[in-house]
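Teaching note: in complex prediction, the entire set of molecules is handled at once rather than each chain in isolation. The prompt given to students was simply: 'Predict the structure of this complex.' The entities are:
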Amino acid sequence: MERKKRLKNLSIAAILAFYCAISLVPFYFLVIRSFTPTLKSGEFYFWIPERPEVQMNARLGNLASVNNIDITKLKKDFGLKGYIDPRLTLQQLAERQGIDAGELEEYLRPFIQYNGIFVVLSNGFLKSLWGTIVVAGSSVAIGGFLGIMTGTALAGFRRPWHLFVYNSYLLNMIVPPMMVILPQYFIVTQFLGLQDSYFAIVLLHIKGGALSTMVFTTYIAAIPKSLRESVAMDGGKHYHYFWYILLPLMGTPFAIFASIMMPLFWNDLLLGLLFLSPEKYTLPAFVATLGGAYGRNFEAVFSGVLMSLIPILVVYFIFQKLFIRSAMAGAVKG
Amino acid sequence: MKSIPILIVGGLLASVMASLPALGQQPVELTFVVTEGEYSAQFRGILDLYEEENPNVTINLSSVNEDTEAAFEARIAAGGAPYIRDLVYPDADNYKTYVNLLERDDIENFGALSYDGAGAFEGVTGIDGVQPALNVRTNPFRSFIYYADEMEKAGLDPKSIQNLDDFMQFLADLKVYVDGNPDIEYVIDAGWLPGAWGRFNPEVWSVGLGATKQEIRDLYTGKIRWDDVDKNPMTKYFRTLKEFYDKGYMPERWWTRNWEQEFEASFISRRSILTFHGPWLFDKVQAVDADAQLDGFFWPPNRDGKIWGPEVTSDYGSVLYAQRQDDPEFAEAVKLFNWWNSPATVKLRSEAIGFVPAMDLSSVGGADLTNDQYVKVIKPVLDGQVYGGAKFDYSLCGRCAAERMRISGTPRPLQDNQMAEIYADYLEGRTTLEDTLAILQKRWERAYQAG
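The expected output is the structure of the full assembly:
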């Protein structure tokens, strides 16, 4: 009997392990792809392929086009003045500019060998990361807070118009965002003057949040009325109830809201491209610009995707317990 | 004493005059968008020269690609246009977005163009008195590209091809070599891109197989029916493509192969040694392998002794956005636009990225193009050293000639992803040549308004 039970447990563990493995495989290959040179991207690798070497007879222009070598930065780092002819090979560049060829080779080696990571880092990844944290973080925090306030007002649908307001929020879910993108752009930039501002995106993320309204209204409606009444009996005001009773209970619905909306806000490509200038692009917009008309630096794209995933994974691990609690919400102990 | 007021007024005037240049030096930020993001570093290097000459001007350079184009267009629609964009394809649907360069008297450089730049847009669309873009480049040349060292190993000399029979024999010999060499998979490498197999290859290959550009224009403009198997100048193209496919020259189901990640990557990694492509593949191969000995050749000349040459139209030109015309900085944008298209800058641009200028650059010593596509493939034709001195036919392409008949918003007859299915059905034998041409006739009727 015991043996049978152990076998059953082992089988379940094996199935779960297999499921876990196939879920993680894409991440594994994302890591491999982040270190696979673009022009080998047609090959399939199980491990990071051999790193290419710097070729001193390669033309600077070709390296700029294919490996995104930043000629302006190179000029600055080597203190070069004037126009740098992209037709020059690296060797010719060193000779004409009086640079030590070995030094130039060393300088370029990381860009060639770990092209994706270096292109992403040297083209404003950290700035984009900061922009994304500001946008996604503010959107979740403000959106969640507004959702709680809305939910508090609408919970239980005590007035006939509450249902109307609730439904109007839900209407947001069926209006395709692309249909309203131009009027929104016009209002936000022309009337509110929020061109090239992170706040423009936050504003659009938090306006009329259907999901937050639904989650918080439902959750708050389930909170016993007696709690509110006891606050009133003790002479407390509504904001006392809101601040000291309601908010501390909102961890679980907030985690539900955050775990659904955070990845959406984090990965929002369209609004970033539309409202921000390239210097302020959020991560998805930043990664999208790594392509050209005739080619795309896939190593950089995969590196950008990998590196933009890391922060959100960190957030998930930090708030893991909260997210698990949200997943367990409603579960009844038997 | 009388001179004191005069001195004061004089002093005031002098100070006002002194302040005028300072007003002219107000900091200006100009947004400049490029379509060829891969050349951003080269363009930045050139634009840096302008900033050095004009310290009050900051040029915010950014690029737009396939993924970001929709958002860029939405932004323009809502009033967020940049000042300048390089490399656009103006057509009857979108030309009003751009400044009509003919209406302004401060646009320079039309006189230096080696073609009728002012009439180019009208020549294609039939829209009178409009020129939305200034194009300074000959559109990209497309040719066969090969690894010369690999061909030598194969005992083949593509440069010895003189006519179509030689070319067919060359492919047959290459097939024998490929079959005996496990490292090489394809005779002619290929992948799917609607622009390549819908816009360029059918026309270029048809001319290579004997048709004239005039016949292709007649086909597109409705003088020849697509379903007229005997007269359609593309009949031979479709037959030859099937012959190549049936003989195993091309990858199996090549229309399903991703252009960059499968097709280009397989050529770059030498799983094939011959393909048909534009200039960019040279750059890509040589960035990976600076020692790669790439060479190329055009299809043999047609019956008129002409090689397909790219037409020069408004396509690939740079534009100023109409939305910005009332901005106080617009005069600075025009100044930059003129500089960008001036012979001295065009020389730098063409040398930096390797395009053949459509402009007389003799005033600046001409362009010194050193890229392999130009030196090894294009220049020998220009110098009359190939195919008995055959010349390029730069006249309008068929698709261009029919633009004035196009029904707004419809896909062109060959240029969309649905063509992949049409190729698939034909090449895999599910449809006949007659069926295929009948489908194309219907697609033509949907796209164009005859007469």
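Point out the following to students. Residues 60-113 of chain A form one domain. Chain A has three domains: 2-40, 60-113, 124-289.
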